[in-house]
Design goal:
- This protein is of the alpha/beta class.
- The strands form 5 sheets. It has a 7-stranded mixed beta sheet with strand order 7-6-15-16-17-14-18. Strands 9-2-1-13-19 form a 5-stranded parallel beta sheet, covered by helices on one side.
- α4 runs antiparallel to α5.
- The longest helix is centred in the first third of the chain and has 23 residues.
- It binds flavin-adenine dinucleotide.
Length: about 500
Amino acid sequence: MCAKIAVIGGGFAGLSAASYLQKMGHQVTIFEKNEQIGGRARKFEEHGFVFDMGPSWYWMPDVFENYFKDFGYKVSDFFELVQLDPGFDVVFSKHDTFSVDADFEKIKDKFEQLEKGSGAKLEKFINEADRKYQVSMNDIVFKPSYSLFEYMNWKIIKNVLAVDFFIPLRSSLKKYFTHANILKIMEFPVLFLGAMADKIPALYSIMNYAALKQGTFYPLGGMHKIVEAMEKVAVKLGVEIQLHAEVQKIIVEEGKAKGIIVNQNTIAFDGVVAAADYEFVERKLLESSYQNYNSEYWDKKVFAPSSLLFYIGVSKKIEKLNHHTLFFDTDFELHSKEIYHNPKWPTEPLFYACTPSVTDASVAPENCENLFLLIPIATGLEDNEALREKYFDKVMARLEDYCEMDIRSHIIYKRSYCKNDFILDYNSFKGNAYGLANTLLQTGPLKPTLKNKKVSNLYYCGQLTVPGPGVPPSLISGKIVAAEISKNLPL
Ligand SMILES: Cc1cc2nc3c(=O)[nH]c(=O)nc-3n(C[C@H](O)[C@H](O)[C@H](O)COP(=O)(O)OP(=O)(O)OC[C@H]3O[C@@H](n4cnc5c(N)ncnc54)[C@H](O)[C@@H]3O)c2cc1C
């Protein structure tokens, strides 16, 4: 007998959970409040430009390959993946930049030029990170992480003892490198985990391995191609997808989820997977007696930053920009303090520019540039048009200075997106962009658990639970939760 399962939210985690559950023989419906599937990775088209709204970095290609393999497909059945070379550029000042080549040997040579001996040290660091990556992917990240006992096997313990796992990544890096620019390059990949390297355990040097050794990839057509591929897989399996379907309540009776209320209609289900933001589901869709955590719990959590984003269409090419450019030309520490310790709009923000039209002619009209700007900011800040414009001018002035060209007067399309939009579109807690930070105290069993402790057939997945934020972890989260909930359901 198959069970009827509701999946709330059609981002990567929801799509993943739905497909795995449907493959197991259940009858799954995804309810997505927005007009399109994909969650934070939606896309929109304007004036001939195709803008990815969220993720732009395709790292850990093995995770995507394994995902599609689980359903009998290859990534290449859906989109063409290209490796970017350089993977990304880092701007330290107008005349001091570093291109992270696709070829790891070239990166080593460049490190060596900055700091004697650092090429060999990079090799050693990345070899350790490779070991952590293999252990993580094979023995750690696919566990539900209910308790530390899940990790008590000799293979994991041996590896944890052999390499830096729990000291802060920054301390681990400082054992290897001293050059300020090298440290910034090496600390960058963990910004994806929502905190600075002094708060992120060295276990996550797997991100350095992903960025520097595996490489940075791009699906031609844009990151949304991943969403489209996952949607095709889900629909082919028989998953039903309802759009404009905002879930208002999870109905619980005698410790069991009986169904949901969506657009004022009550629909009965045998099980519910909540793949929308965890805090919202708990606080707004469940009565307080069925919530795992109270509001004080969420207030104490370290969230990944919010972001001020700009989607810009430019009517000429910007020659100096590669696909990914990180502007680390201002005070890294000050900006981080203004995100995590003393939340305020940043004095002089670091920012990130993505120009996918450098690689992909399909995302912009001919001789135009598709430009995406991201400024990380603290969660919960005031957000209004004047502030957005102030920061637009700040970063555009720096971008124009770096590129030595006028860009602003060639803008033919511009849209901003910030904290208020994250709340409105995704029910995001304080407008966070990508979930809960992977700090040591918010890793594995210390994350919000994927099982509701009081409602036996209600589970959570996505970037606020295990394994954490980012596209690959969201895919994995859906797979873990599907296995867990199906243990409790009739087949
Ligand atoms: C600007 C930005 C840049 C990023 N860059 C990268 C990157 O380069 N690489 C990377 O790997 N990751 C990146 N990330 C992180 C990555 O996008 C997320 O971790 C991932 O998309 C989260 O997927 P999810 O399914 O957990 O959540 P979501 O994508 O948020 O999906 C949750 C869904 O639930 C829906 N929902 C909410 N409430 C309800 C309701 N009541 N009823 C029905 N549906 C509801 C929402 O509309 C949403 O569609 C980025 C994120 C952002 C915001």
